[in-house]
Design brief:
Number of strands: 10
Strand content: 15-25%
Shape: globular
Number of helices: 9
Largest sheet: 10 strands, antiparallel
Distance between the termini: 60 Å
């Protein structure tokens, strides 16, 4: 028995409950990606089948909504670039200046009316508007690694972690057997569960999850990962109730703009894995703070803001490219399939209603 498998068999109840909470993580990561019967696995696993799985775990039918991260709120603001990223990438977004953005905070799950569960994976999608009509779209979640190395693993895990029809809850015995047989998932869980999630969105860090490639004006390319780090959010009284997380986020934005530092980690080529999002890069890698994301408006989600936006992680400006991580293609494909389905449906009013001030 390997060390990893021994660790997986030692998972305790908290780990299993945590596993259930992050079962939708893939959904978070995979819940907006594709759009056809594209073959992305050895037994013809397709984007359509991935999104079918997400719908099956939603606990109901919610036309017009995203198949994962259905509950969310629209935001707007800007990216303040400090110019430090120019040495790494020729992308226009890293030239000093201010670039408009919109986005969406969300919680994992296919039910837009679910209560705010603090342990539920949190998402942040961003769309940055850049010179020349370019855009940079990001789909981030609040954990540093993903639970699955491949789309097939994601599909199998959602089956193993699905609620038992008899109890309405995941079967912990089935989950334990799955984790024991998947040491990468067990190792990722051990990282994810280090510490409780912050009390508010404003205090939450968001991670790009997959590796990407930056290329500068000299043609030098480096593997990178990025994350958003909260920039000294002001303490606020946390609301209570079913929408506590979102109500707190909206109140915070209406009190003063919220800021996150955009930090790029530079990997060592040939050493740090770029094709496996379950693996963290070693500590001590070079980090460059390239600017700040500033969120200054919150709105009820509608067709006038981001309701019809697909936060496809492969929409990238010149100077940023995908890595060899197969999950990136799967995410893009599944996001597109989710978008295709809701595009033909009547859109509901956003579940999180923002009172304009």
């Amino acid at each position: 028995m390997t060390e990893a498998s021994q660790r997986s068999l030692q998972l305790n109840r908290r780990t299993l409950l945590g596993s259930a909470a992050v079962a939708a993580l893939g959904a978070a990561g995979i819940g907006g990606f594709l759009f056809t019967e594209s073959v992305i696995g050895p037994w013809r696993l397709t984007a359509r089948r991935l999104v079918d799985r997400l719908q099956d775990t939603a606990g109901g039918t919610f036309p017009g909504c995203r198949r994962n991260h259905a509950k969310g709120v629209a935001v707007a603001g800007y990216f303040d670039s400090n110019g430090n990223g120019v040495e790494l990438s020729k992308a226009s977004v890293f030239r000093p200046g201010r670039y408009r953005l919109d986005g969406r905070f969300s919680l994992a799950g296919g039910n837009p009316h679910m209560p705010d569960v603090p342990a539920a994976p949190r998402g942040l999608g961003l769309r940055l508007f850049l010179p020349g009509g370019e855009q940079w779209r990001m789909a981030m979640i609040n954990v540093p690694v993903f639970l699955d190395a491949t789309a097939q693993d994601f599909y199998d895990r959602t089956l193993a972690f699905a609620p038992d029809p008899a109890t309405g809850k995941p079967d912990t015995a089935v989950m334990s057997r799955y984790i024991a047989a998947h040491p990468k998932t067990a190792a990722a869980l051990s990282i994810i569960e280090q510490g409780a999630p912050p009390a508010t969105f404003a205090e939450t860090a968001f991670f790009g999850l997959n590796a990407f490639e930056f290329a500068n004006a000299d043609g030098d390319a480096v593997p990178v990962r990025w994350r958003l780090v909260p920039d000294n959010p002001a303490p606020l009284a946390q609301p209570v109730g079913e929408n506590a997380l979102f109500d707190g986020l909206v109140a915070g934005i209406q009190a003063a703009p919220l800021r996150w530092k955009l930090v790029v980690t530079v990997g060592e080529r040939g050493v740090d894995p770029t094709d496996d999002a379950t693996k963290a890069w070693p500590p001590g890698r070079r980090e460059v703070q390239v600017g700040a994301v500033v969120v200054e408006q919150a709105h009820t989600e509608s067709a006038d803001n981001v309701q019809n936006v697909n936060f496809d992680p492969l929409v990238l400006p010149d100077g940023i490219a995908p890595s060899d991580d197969p999950l990136l293609q799967a995410r893009s494909a599944a996001y597109a399939e989710s978008y295709r389905r809701r595009a033909g449906e009547t859109k509901p009013t956003g579940a999180v209603v923002v009172k304009e001030v």
